[in-house]
Amino acid sequence: MVNLALNLLWIPRYDIERAAIASTISYSLTLLAQLFLYCRLSGNSWIQVLIPTRMDLAFYLTVGRVLVKGLKKRTTSS
Q1: Which residues of 21-55 are buried (b: 16+ CB within 10 A; e: fewer)?
Q2: What is the pLDDT of residue 66?
Q3: In this structure, are residues 22 and 7 in contact, taking their beta carbons and an 8 Å threshold?
Q4: What values do phi and psi take at 14, rounded to 5?
Q5: Distance CA 18, CA 24 (A)
Q6: Whole-angstrom distance, CA of residue 24 vs CA of residue 15
Q7: What pLDDT, in 10s, does the model give residues 25-69?
Q8: Domain locations in the chain?
């Protein structure tokens, strides 16, 4: 709704640059609303949600290794 409203107001006057700003504003507001609701419902703090832990980083590293290994296997078998 915010994106649509801002686009209707800004595009006729200011062209495509304001459309990009309207999208950025609406996506940022959506992120904040979803983060607020998630934290409220889950009981997690926003820091727990946004800041990766060592376990998170280890998981990302493991997934990255598996993906690279799979890609290497695919390219060598072609």
Answers
A1: ebeeebeeeeeeeeeeeebeeeeeeeeeeeeeeee
A2: 95
A3: yes
A4: -120, 0
A5: 10
A6: 15
A7: 888 999 999 999 999 999 999 999 999 999 999 999 999 999 999
A8: 1-44, 45-78
Residue 6 has pLDDT above 90, yes or no: no
Token pair of 62 as six digits:
């493991």
Q: CA-to-CA distance for 49 and 35, rounded, in angstroms?
A: 8
**Rounded mean pLDDT, 6-35:** 84
H-helix or E-strand spanning residue 60? helix 54-77
Determine the distance from the C-alpha atom of residue 59 to the mean position of all C-alpha atoms in its chain, rounded to a whole number: 18
CB atoms within 10 A of CB 69: 10
